[in-house]
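Researcher: Sequence recovery benchmark, item below. Answer with residues only.
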């Protein structure tokens, strides 16, 4: 699927570094802009960092409407492979649906050294309910979910509209990932905002309880809403991720 005109700030980023790679995955309807600060901090710590742009993102909602969750899986699979070409070990972090995709990779690639999902989505009852109501209507787009940020004056580069068809795709992806959580047994640091208006914080608790990893922890983000990587806790997330990888 050829995509033109990627929005400024939404392009993929790659920072070469040492032989420890970190794949950094953005969320549903969002862009790499939400993950750039974290990516830069990880690169400053010496790691090789790749932040891919999920297919259908960072261009137009019409492009997103044509993308499937298999496309998003393919994007992160390719991203992982790209890092594995030069790195001895790879860690994965992601926000929201990026966290869902992080968990997906952990389920299928036990060679990954560790994961850091941030407000990862595995079950969104509200979205499921809305989708079921919309699916039989002629509605193609609804209001976007971007910029759930507590900090004043910060805006996420995300679509102002969400394609209804794409809601079905993320719901299918979360269901698939949720069913296989117990096969994950690699080290995990799970970040969860205490107040999140997009993904219920219970999702992170369920991830923590469902995975089989001996080494796992939850870091509570008290000062941030859903897009925590752009919010008051962005420095904390970066510090904790760096310490987790070095540890």
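Model:
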């Amino acid at each position: 699927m050829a995509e033109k005109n990627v929005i400024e700030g939404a392009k993929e980023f790659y920072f070469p570094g040492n032989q420890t790679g970190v794949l950094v995955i953005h969320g549903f309807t969002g862009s790499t802009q939400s993950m750039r600060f974290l990516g830069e901090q990880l690169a400053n710590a010496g790691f090789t960092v790749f932040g891919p742009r999920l297919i259908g993102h960072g261009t137009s909602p019409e492009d997103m409407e044509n993308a499937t969750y298999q496309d998003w899986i393919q994007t992160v699979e390719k991203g992982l492979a790209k890092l594995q070409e030069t790195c001895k070990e790879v860690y994965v972090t992601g926000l929201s649906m990026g966290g869902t995709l992080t968990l997906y990779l952990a389920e299928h690639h036990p060679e990954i050294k560790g994961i850091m999902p941030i407000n990862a989505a595995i079950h969104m009852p509200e979205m499921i309910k809305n989708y079921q109501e919309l699916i039989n209507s002629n509605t193609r787009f609804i209001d976007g979910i971007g910029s759930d940020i507590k900090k004043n004056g910060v805006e996420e580069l995300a679509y102002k509209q969400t394609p209804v068809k794409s809601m079905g795709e993320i719901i299918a992806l979360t269901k698939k990932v949720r069913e296989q959580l117990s096969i994950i047994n690699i080290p995990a640091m799970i970040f969860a905002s205490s107040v999140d208006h997009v993904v219920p914080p219970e999702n992170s608790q369920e991830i923590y309880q469902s995975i089989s990893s001996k080494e796992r922890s939850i870091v509570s983000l008290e000062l941030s809403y859903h897009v925590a990587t752009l919010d008051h806790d962005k420095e904390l997330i970066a510090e904790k991720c760096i310490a987790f990888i070095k540890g």
